[in-house]
């Protein structure tokens, strides 16, 4: 009741104040109604300890925290449903205000995914969507310095599977909203929070179902924010300081099975070629024949031009004059495996199976190749190229799954989602002077939402160094306590900025 009164009071205040504006930066303006009620992103010592515990080790008696719940996805049919259900109960327990606020609806979708609808006091504003996923990739304990589901804190870091991908986002979004609600903040712009439970194995039961549900409700989103890029530190040799990359594009993907069948027989008198030999030669040809370097198409060129002045001589001159030096840059980028992933469709041999006994020529040999498709290519174009490289009719090609790259989202002055992220990055990370559009080399749940918005942005608000990247899906994944707190602060600011920052669109009154 008290919350409802507050809501009405705030609504009245908003109507009285009207939409007074002042210029912030090119393309942005801020309404005074929001500026008046801004809540500073400062958290007490107790709140900081609490937010860390909820994320890692909730309390010493039950020894449960978000990282400790093993929400592992193995395949799109096999994931830890017990842990996913436990996670649902866990967030209900640790974010009581989010779950009890009258203007927030919570629904479970696809069994284990969660959709929160935050109504907002101004329904004329177009809603947005914050995305994250609950599931994690498997983490066998071998090679880890601490058990991967321990959530242990050591030397200022919280360790465990999901600390970077992507329970940090799940918990930071809910934590920021909880703290805003405790401070009686009432969002003006409606928004959704969607927490998928099967992102690591396709998103077909989580994100896709939520998207279908929102579409059936007639929802159109101003923008979507998901995981997928970072403040990059040290990925490009010689770049002087970290820069924030908002991924406005996402590569496509093909999982292609290659299969060779021959008549089985006794290994003492083999034919000249076996199923294994034929298949091995085919996959080797694929690995040895990289698909074309597409530098120049896609957002990478813009990123490099924006970064040009961050390099010392002569790289700064080279990047400022790509019209002249692009053949050199194009070759330079393919030398490193991460920048190589930005300039071409990559070819990764991920599975190889053949043979049943040491003295039997196997009748069948199978391999799976995972291609990540450059934004300027399509599934069909890649398959055509692959057929020509394999060039052997004995090798059958079976597409297991495939999707084209995602459309490139706008990053101009009128792109609300991009500008909001840029603005929030500058305020939370004042030391980061460059924000540039880029490409996500992995795949995210956001691809299931392209029917609802053309502004899809992938950005995690923390620094990522190449050594941190090895922890994502790898060993010893960890996040610093300070980075997690900053993540919460970022979402706390972003939600408020979505209420106050507007982009100026000529002849359009509201976004
Ligand atoms: C000039 C700029 C340099 C850019 C360097 C790029 C560094 C990128 C670093 C990390 C990218 C990580 C991407 C994280 C998101 C990936 C999420 C994920 O793992 N998804 C799964 C989904 C499987 S379901 C099809 C995946 O396999 O992609
Ligand atoms: Zn992820
Ligand atoms: Zn992942």
TrEMBL record:
Lineage start: Eukaryota, Metazoa, Chordata, Craniata, Vertebrata
Keyword Protease: yes
Catalysed reactions, as listed in the record: L-phenylalanine + (9Z)-octadecenoate = N-(9Z-octadecenoyl)-L-phenylalanine + H2O; N-(9Z-octadecenoyl)-L-leucine + H2O = L-leucine + (9Z)-octadecenoate; N-(5Z,8Z,11Z,14Z-eicosatetraenoyl)-L-serine + H2O = (5Z,8Z,11Z,14Z)-eicosatetraenoate + L-serine; N-(4Z,7Z,10Z,13Z,16Z,19Z-docosahexaenoyl)-L-phenylalanine + H2O = (4Z,7Z,10Z,13Z,16Z,19Z)-docosahexaenoate + L-phenylalanine
Protein's name according to its UniProt entry: N-fatty-acyl-amino acid synthase/hydrolase PM20D1
Pathway: Lipid metabolism; fatty acid metabolism; Amino-acid metabolism
One Gene Ontology cellular component annotation held by this UniProt entry: extracellular space
Any one GO molecular-function label of the UniProt entry: metal ion binding
One Gene Ontology term from the biological process aspect of the record: energy homeostasis
Gene from which the chain derives: PM20D1
EC annotation from Swiss-Prot or TrEMBL: 3.5.1.114, 3.5.1.14
Organism: Loxodonta africana (African elephant)
Function: Secreted enzyme that regulates the endogenous N-fatty acyl amino acid (NAAs) tissue and circulating levels by functioning as a bidirectional NAA synthase/hydrolase. It condenses free fatty acids and free amino acids to generate NAAs and bidirectionally catalyzes the reverse hydrolysis reaction. Some of these NAAs stimulate oxidative metabolism via mitochondrial uncoupling, increasing energy expenditure in a UPC1-independent manner. Thereby, this secreted protein may indirectly regulate whole body energy expenditure.
Domain Peptidase M20 dimerisation positions: 248-392
Keyword set, alphabetical order: Hydrolase, Metal-binding, Protease, Zinc
Family membership: Belongs to the peptidase M20A family.
């Amino acid at each position: 009741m008290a919350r409802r009164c507050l809501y009405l009071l705030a609504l009245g205040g908003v109507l009285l104040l009207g939409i007074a504006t002042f210029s912030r930066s090119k393309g942005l303006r801020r309404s005074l109604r929001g500026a008046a009620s801004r809540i500073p992103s400062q958290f007490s010592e107790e709140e900081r300890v609490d937010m860390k515990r909820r994320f890692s080790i909730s309390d010493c008696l039950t020894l449960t925290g978000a990282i400790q719940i093993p929400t592992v996805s193995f395949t799109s049919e096999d994931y830890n449903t017990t842990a996913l259900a436990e996670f649902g109960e866990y967030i209900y327990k640790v974010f009581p205000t989010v779950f009890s606020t009258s203007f927030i609806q919570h629904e479970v979708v696809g069994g284990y995914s969660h959709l929160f609808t935050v109504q907002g006091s101004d329904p004329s504003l177009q809603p947005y969507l914050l995305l994250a996923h609950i599931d994690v990739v498997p983490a066998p304990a071998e090679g880890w310095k601490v058990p991967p589901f321990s959530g242990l804190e050591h030397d200022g870091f919280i360790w465990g599977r999901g600390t970077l991908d992507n329970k940090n986002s799940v918990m930071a979004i809910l934590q920021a909203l909880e703290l805003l609600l405790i401070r009686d903040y009432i969002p003006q712009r409606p928004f959704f929070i969607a927490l998928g439970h099967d992102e690591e194995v396709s998103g077909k039961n989580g994100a896709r179902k939520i998207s279908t549900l929102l579409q059936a409700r007639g929802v159109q989103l101003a923008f979507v924010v998901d995981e997928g890029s970072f403040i990059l530190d040290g990925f490009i040799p010689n770049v002087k300081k970290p820069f924030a990359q908002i991924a406005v594009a996402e590569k496509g993907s093909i999982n292609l099975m290659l299969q060779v069948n021959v008549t089985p027989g006794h290994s003492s008198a083999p034919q000249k070629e076996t199923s294994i030999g034929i298949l091995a030669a085919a996959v080797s040809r694929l690995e040895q024949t990289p698909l074309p370097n597409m530098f120049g198409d896609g957002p990478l060129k813009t990123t490099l031009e924006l970064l040009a002045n961050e390099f010392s001589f002569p790289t700064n001159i080279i990047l400022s004059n790509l019209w002249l030096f692009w053949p050199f840059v194009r070759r330079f980028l393919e030398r490193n495996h991460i920048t190589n992933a930005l300039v071409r469709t990559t070819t990764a041999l991920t599975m190889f199976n053949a043979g049943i006994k040491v003295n039997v020529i196997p009748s069948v040999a199978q391999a799976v190749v995972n291609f990540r498709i450059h934004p300027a290519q399509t599934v069909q174009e890649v398959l055509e190229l692959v057929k020509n490289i394999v060039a052997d009719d004995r090798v059958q090609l079976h597409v297991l799954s495939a999707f084209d790259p995602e459309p490139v989202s706008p990053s101009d002055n009128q792109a609300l989602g991009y500008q909001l992220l840029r603005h929030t990055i500058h305020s939370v990370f004042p030391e980061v002077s460059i924000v540039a559009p880029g490409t996500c080399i992995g795949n995210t749940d956001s691809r299931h939402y392209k029917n609802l918005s053309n502004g899809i942005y992938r950005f995690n608000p923390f620094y990522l160094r190449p050594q941190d990247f090895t922890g994502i899906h790898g060993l010893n994944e960890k996040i610093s306590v300070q980075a997690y707190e900053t993540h919460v602060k970022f979402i706390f600011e972003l939600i408020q900025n979505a209420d106050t920052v507007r982009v100026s669109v000529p002849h359009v009154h509201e976004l």
